[in-house]
Each structure stands twice: as structure tokens, then as C-alpha cells.
Amino acid sequence: MTVALPLLILATALVPCVLTFFLPEHRIKLRNGLNLGGALVKLGLVVFLLVEVARGRVYDASLELAPGLVLLLRIDALALLFVTLSTMLWLLTTIYAIAYFDGRPNLSRFFGFFSLCVFSTTGIAFSGTLLTFFLFYELLTLATWPLVVHKGNAASIRAGRRYLTYTMLGSAVLFAGIIWLESLTGPAAFTEPPDLSAIDPWVLRAIFVLLVGGLGVKAALIGLHGWLPAAMVAPAPVSALLHAVAVVKAGAFGIVRVVYDVFGIGLVDAIGMTLPLALVASATIFYGSLRALAQTEVKRLLAYSTVSQVSYIVLGAALLSPFGTIGGLIHLVHQGLMKITLFFCAGIFDERAGVHAIRELDGMGPKMPVTSVAFSIGALGMIGLPPLAGFVSKWYLGIGALDAGQGWVVVVLAGSSLLNAAYFLPVLYRIWFREAGTNAKNAARERPIALIAPPLVTAAAALGAGLFAAFAYSPLGWATLIVERQYTP
Amino acid sequence: MTTLGLAPVFLIIVPLTAAFLAVVAPWPRVLVIGAVPLMLALTVALVMSVWRDGPISIAIGGWQAPLGIELAAGGLAASFLATTTVVMTIIVLVALPAFGNRHGETRTGWAFWPLAFMMWAALNAVFLSGDLFNIYVAIEFLTLATLALVALEGKAGTIEAAMRYAIFALFGSLAYLLGVVLLYAAHGTLDLDLLAAATKGDSASLVGAALITAGLAAKTALFPFHAWLPPAHAGAPAPASAMLSALVPKASFFVLVQFWFVVMPEAAGPLFVQLIGVLGAAAILYGSLLAIRQTRLKRLIAYSTVAQIGYLFLVFPLAGGDSAAQPWSAGAWTGAMLQAIAHALAKGAMFLAAGLVVEAAGHDRLSAVHGLARTMPITAFTFALSSVTLMGLPPSGGFVAKYLMLTSAFASGQIVWALVILTGGLLAAAYLFRVLAPTFLRSAKARADIGAVRQALPLTLAATSILLGLLSAQPFEFLQIGRPQAATGGLQ
Do B441 and A65 touch (CB under 8 A)? Predict the structure, then answer.
């Protein structure tokens, strides 16, 4: 059972993926049934796992390729944090996508690659070695590309090229780092971190920079973020799940793994890499927010906001304090919930009212109240308004910074909250307090329910994650469990 | 000796007989149906026998070496031979509808089958030969078949390509033969194992070795001897291109590996192995950069072959010379061999798929692939999977190969080769996505119908190249059988 379970969970995404590719375009019901069925089965399995892992069980399965090249799947608390998030959001996004794409062409291909992305994301979460991680990480690159170019026009092909250029270069750098490390120590499994004490600190620093630099492309660290705004040409469900959650989180998750399970936070601190990492993360937080201020299009504003927000996770990982780690980890979930809400809503605004530019949102609130409420909850959460989820993240990051003796981080957090407010509040003002513009006047009704319900659910979840943060299975409760196990081996 | 024990002999005789029969009785369908299952069975027998009992060697007619003809196969030969069987099987099946129509009997349709079977026989003969002269004969057969296949279309361009190939190939043959003569004069034997015992780095051996290496490098199209390859591989009909690109260079490379790792490992000085490494690296970079600039589909794939062959030669600096005794050499050596196999599978698939695209679109400009993901999804998927292998992305065979070579490069401190391998992967992505990206374009033109089964055949090859990575543990172990430098199991 311990071997079968990781494989079973991967199969819940892979089986629909493979079957969907072979489905004729008109078998709509079967296709939807397969994808929703896979997502539901997976959700069931994940709930079961949450209970089991909370009791201290660990599941693993491995396959040896060439000598030294071992694929290891391992389910621990950190893996489950990421998987639970992606599983929940996969289900919601599938519902949303079915309604969004209703009647458009090439859907078998779309859902096939979509499931492949979910499969890769799950694999990334379950990876027990650096190389396994790399395998799924690359698969994610390849599987998301067809979704970016899905519209098949020249603009999307161009965006796809940009996306690949960034991610492929990042992967090559990451791969070089992994191989360099493994040529010194042998295979790097997360459970038994390699013994790095004998290695020259400068070599360690170089490897660390290669690994984090490679992962930083997907995590959209400053300077490496250029693909993310470009990839916004993709359809709304893709932007929602992949570019707000799966792809960027894969990078951030990888950085967390490298810092905690490959090097160990103690060693990262000892070779003096925590401060540079925290600085890069802080710079990204500011940079993303500043660029977001200048955007005129809704999706690009959200994209730059993602650039900024994902670095909170990296910042949390760079703080030598349990509270900082908790703050980073819960933000992985919280940011996902809030940002996917915003992207869902942006998709609905586009679909029902033709909104692309921010000014076209004027007076949308009374016309599309449900979507506007969900959007507002997401935006306020991003700003960090209590009791929303974003507040809890920032609170823990702040405490962690003080605990780690990095008081300046609090200034970063405060400044970034101000910037978040500066670019989100004008949008909310337009939605609720401006006279209705052309788009609002001509807005269609908010339907079907499958399109409107997902953002409501995620908005409610973002609210709940803040309100019920003290509950054991809340993101905070779970992150605390992870960190307790991390700091007390 | 049982019949199964004679599998190596029949692996040469069966395709040779088929080649003759194809001349006198041109019924390709019957020949393919008869020969292919037989070849598959014989290959399985050979592989099982090597897997169970280790390297085999057969003295034909009971005459022992150096007098008689000896056939031998270790893990390397058997796995190259098995790759050939798999790739050739798919190629002849895809070629049947195009070249198998007796009613529309044409010169190309008539000439293709004898040549294809002759090539199959020659390839197997190279892999199974145990002495340098038999190898020479087999390679000459291979060259002749290649030459005719390149010229098959009979257009001015292809004839010119064939002439260019003939010049390089003849130079290669002459150099090789001269080297063989020198070795024979010095040691009185051409048997690989006996030569290995006899050569002690004397000057005659060294000159002979240099000539043999130059000759084989020209035939493998190692940079700077690559100039003949792109026009020849792009000009031949697609099934022939698949053979030429996937299999033929592997034969002369195989001999080079046998020569430098079995016969004269001690002669590979540091300067020599680094020089070969530099040529390999140049091939990777130069071939990839030219592939990026091509405007025709088959040319692009052909230049990709120039680049991918370059990786094979990195085995010399990584596992040859002084490195041979090091723990990382097993990984590097096996990585290079896996690269040869993975490339054979992926490139075979890609050329066959390109052939189908050209057939459907009526031309081979890059625009032929526009909208392919919608009009011919199976073929588009074949391109995608074989590209994954050629780019060296996980979990393909190309990935495991490059992983093994990269680890060795880092472990031995030869970072330059690691950088070349990584850059090569990125460049491969650059030229392959020039093919993959437009398949998603909406603007698809009307095209001829290609049956799903014919499209699925190349896909099986591409899928096998991915599986080679996922299931690489057994191939890795199998390749170690009979390898002179004992495997130390890679990096642990």
C-alpha cells in the first residue's frame, strides 16, 4: 500500500491525460467525466493521506534507472501541502474551464495537456530526490508550453517562444547545479541530505547559486521573471491554475526543498547565502509591485502581482527562524487561493463583459456583483487585510524576521503592503464607486454557475484560511506541523 | 551447436538472402512478412543468449581465428544490433505502402528493397565481425548501399549529394584499408582480440590506428568530415534517410569504439582523446547552429544528426585514455552508447515522420508542419517525443545518456565538456522548437490523407526512445557485458 499510493495518486492525473488525448473532439461528456472524475478521486485520496501523514506515516516508491539515477516518490507533510493545494484547485479549475471553453475547438488536446501539467505538479511535490524533482519540473515546462500557445495565433507562438527561452535556460542551469552537486556527493535524496561538510564553501555557494538561479526562473525572481507577463496570452484557466499556482509554485517549492532538504537552513546560513537570498526576494517583492502599479491591463497587473507575491515564499525560506518558514509555507497556499480567485474573476470579466484594460472595469460592481465580491476579497487578501489569509502570512513572516534578527524585512513587508494597496485599491474603487462604463453597461449576466462558483469557493477558502487559521488542518496548522518536524528531527 | 546458437550467422544471412530475392522476385510484401518476424526472433535469441551466458563468439566452419572467420557479440554489439532490428522493422513497414506497389513498378520501388535488405545485412555484419578485414568488407557493403540509396531519387541534386558522399566514403575506405594493412604487416593478425594482445604502442600500430580513425571518422561524418551528410540524408527518400541518419553512422562509430576501447586502449594518449573531444564538441555546436538556420525540414533534421553524432565522440575524453581506469568512465562510456541507441530510435522516428509530412504537404519547406497538431496529431506527437530525446530532456533515453556523460564530466573536472553538452541541449531545443511551435498554428492547409497506422509506426520508435530512459537500468547492465574495462557501476 505504501508503494501503491503515490503511484495511484499520479495515475489519477495521468490516466485522464492519456485517454483524453485519444478522445474525439465531440465526446464532450466523456471528456468532462474523465477529468472531473480524476480530480475527485485524487481529492479523496489526498484527504485520506492528510489524516495518515498527520499521524506520522510516510509513503514512498522508487525506481532505479541507471546506477545513481533513482526516481524516488515520497509523500511527506511538505509534499502534501503542495499537493492538497493543487488538487483542490485542479478540481475547481476543471469545472471553470469546462464552462469557459464551452464549444471551442481543440479541447481534447487542451485537457490532455492540462492533466499532464497536474500530473507533473503532483510529481514535483512527491519528488524525493533532486533528480526526480528535475524530471517532473522539466515535464511541467513541456506540458505548459502547448497551453501557452493554445490559441495558435502568432502572438501566442511568440509568447511561447519567450516562455521556453526562459524556462529552458533555467532548467539547464538547474541541471548543471544538480549534476555538480551529485558528482561530489552522489544522489541527493531529500530525506538523507548529502554530507556537504567536506566541500569547499565556494563550491557550495556556486552550486547554491546555480540551483536557486535555475529554480528562480519559474519562481519569477527579479530579472528572471520576463516570461510570466508574456505568458498571459494563454486562456484564463491556464493563467489561473498554471501561472498563478502550479508553475511559479513549482519554482518556489523547489527553492524551499533546496534550502531545507538539500543544504539545510543551517548550512545555507553558515555559507552566508541566507541574506543574499532574502535581499533578492525583497527586491523582487518591490519590483513586482512597482511594475504592477504601471500596468493598464488586468491580467498583466495580476501577473506582476504574482511576481511580487511568490517571493514572499522565498523570503520565508531565507529567514533562519521557524516562524519565517511557517510564513513562507502558508503563503504558498494563501497566495494560491487568492491569486486564482483574481484570475478566475479576470477571466469572467473578460468573457462576460469583454474587459481587458483596468479602466474598462468602471462600475462593474453593481452589474456583476458576485464576481466583483470575489475579486475584492482576493485583492484585499493580497494587501494583507485582517482577517484574510494574506494577513496571516505577513504576520508570521514579520515575526520570523524579528526572530531571525532581520528587522529590515519588516520594513519590506510594510512597504510592500502599501504598494499592494496602491495598485489594488484603485481597481476596487473603479469596480465599486465609478459610474458604469461601456463594458459594465453591456455586461452579460453572470452565468453559467460552473463559471461563477469556482472563484466564490476560492474566495471563501481564502477568507476561511484566515478566520480558522488555528484549526489543525488549516494551512497554518499544517505548516506548523511541517516546521515542527523540520526543526525537531 | 544448436540452431539458436547460430543466430548471429542467420542475422546476416537472412537479410542478405532477402536482398537477393528482392532482385529476382520483386515481391516486397512477401519478403517483409517473411524476413521481419524471423529477424525479430533471431535478435531476441541473440540478446537472450548474451544476457544469460555472456559474450558469444562463433568460428564459422570450425576454423578458429586467425585463420577462420569469427563472429562475436558482447553487450555492445548485441544492443546495437537489436536497435538496428527495431529501427529497420519500423522503416520497412512504413516504406511498404510507398515502395511496395507492384503495379506501379518504378525504378525506385524496384531498387529500394534489395538496397534496404543489403544495408540491414551489412549493419549486422559490422556489429558481429570479430576482425578488422571482415569489418572492412561489411563497411564497404554499407557504403555501396548508402551510395545507391542517396542517389535513388535520380534528381540532379541527389546525384551530386551521392557523388560528394562517394568522395568522402572512398577516402575513408582507403585510409581504413591502409591502416589495416599496416597493422597486419606489423602483427600478422587482424582478429580484434589477438591484435589487442599484440599491439604495444609501436609506431606502425600508431600510424595504422591514426589512418583507421581518420577513415572511420569520415564515414561517421565527424566534424570537419560532415559536409557530405546533410545533402545526402536530406536528399534520399524518407525511409532511406531514416536508415542513413539513425543507423549508418553508428556502424562506423561502433568500429571506432571497438578499436580504441578493445584493441588499442593504451594508445589513446591525452592529446588524442582531447582532440577527438574538440571535434565532437565542434560538431555539436556547429551542427546545431546550422540546423537553426535551415529552412527545409529534412535538412534541419540532417544537421541535427551532425550535432548528435558529436556527443558520441565525447566518449573519448570522458572515458578513453587516462580516464579509462577511473570510476567515472563506466558512466561516460555507457552514456555515449545509450546516446547512440537513443539517437537511432529518435532520429529514425523523426525522419519517418518528416517523410509522412512531406508526402502529405507535397514539399519539405518548414511551413509543411503548420497546423500539424490538428491535421496529423499522431505525427505531431511523434515529432514531440523524438524531440524530447534529442534535446536530452527527462525521462528520455537521451536524458539518461547526457546525465551519465555530464556526471562523468563533472567528476573528472572536465567542465568544458559539460558546458558543451548543456549548450548542445539548449541549441537542440532552439532548432527543434522551430519545427514544434508552428504545429500549433491555426492556419492549416488542406493535405493528403495519411493512414493512422502508418503514422503510428514512427510513434512507436519515438516512444521506445523515451522508454529507453525510463527503463535504462537493464540496458545499462546489458551494455556492460563483455566490456573490457570492468564496470564499476557509475557514481555511487
Answer: no
